[in-house]
Amino acid sequence: MSAGDDSAAAQGLRRRSLFALLSAAGAAGAASAALGLGGAQASPLKRDEHVLALPGLLWQGADGQLQADIELWVYENERRPGARSLFARYLGIELSQLSARERALFETRARWFLKDSERGKRLSIEMDGQGPLSLNRTDRAGRSSTQISLPSALWNRAWERAPAQPQAYSVTGRSQSQGWLWPMAAQGLSIVSDIDDTIKISQVRDTSQLLRNTFLAPFEAVPGMAAWLGQMQAAGAQAGRNVEVHYLSSSPVQLLEPLQDFLQGHGFPGGCLLLRESTSWSRLIPGAQDGERHKLAHLQRLMVRFPGRRFVLIGDSGEADPEIYAQAASRHPQQVAAILIRDVTGEAASAARYRQAMAALPAATPWYLIEDGAQGLAIAQQHGFWL
């Protein structure tokens, strides 16, 4: 979720004074919670603190050592009276005007934005009989990010399961806080897909409608996209290739659970969600450059970490996906098999924007403008990206 055109409404939301709203609501003490501040001293988890585990990858390095990315968010639930109404006001949503269904959806999705991030927390995890494995303590945004080494035998057990099935782990002392690691082979095909307006109808270019679709309406899938991604993965498996899906989005981590439900409910293939860190209200909608940096950083990390894999990059024209993907392909010309852009702006493939963006694209890297998943599938079948 991002403002593709960095509209005035989006800029206004980012500039809106959170402290002024808190003061007006008589809840100035919630300022540190909304901004993701916490204590600086290292300490263990308290009973009223919770952990959200973000999806990560499990892979073998060039030296054969098994590695894993562990990303955790530690938080307390915001209990101050009026916090939910304050958040609705911040978004420009009038709760009294919502239908019962809209109010229920808002309550479900807004709760992830009403958290007090906890700094300096010591954590460990346990996985397949290994552990406890100590992690880096949480930062001011409540995030612990650690790359850990694991016994090589765990890799073989991970691949005893069907491909695309993640490896589970749990936070020590919090068995209900479970995370998932997606095994990634050194060779194969990675399908990297954006979410908003690529596989989910979000209307990113209209900030008011984007917020409504995010908080008040059931998530709606772009026709044919789930079938396309699923058939590409299945065709690759039949051809003997390891095909993995990565969902790379500028949506904030607070939408992890709703997006996981959306993907599962609409039949999308399983895959690692790579969402944007945004544990403060002021970064709910990022500027265009924030979204670009997030996506480029993840693409760069994937392509450097897995030089033997090929990548199919799928996005839309409502954001900077064409420019981001072309830049990634120019940096890694041997790894990008194809770029497919869903048209949501009505621009022809010959438009100046595309000519400029694709000018640096390697000659061997094709790109296509598509309307929906059926067209994407037809192109993929014609050119056999999974081969």
UniProtKB/TrEMBL annotation:
Keywords: Signal. PROSITE patterns: TAT. One of its GO terms (molecular function) is phosphatidate phosphatase activity. The keyword DNA-binding does not apply. Pfam families: APP1_cat (PF09949). Residues 190-343 form the Phosphatidate phosphatase APP1 catalytic domain. InterPro entries: APP1_cat, Mg2+_PAP, TAT_signal. The keyword Signal applies. It comes from the Bacteria. Residues 1-33 form the signal peptide. PANTHER family: PHOSPHATIDATE PHOSPHATASE APP1 (PTHR28208). This is Phosphatidate phosphatase APP1 catalytic domain-containing protein. It comes from Vandammella animalimorsus.
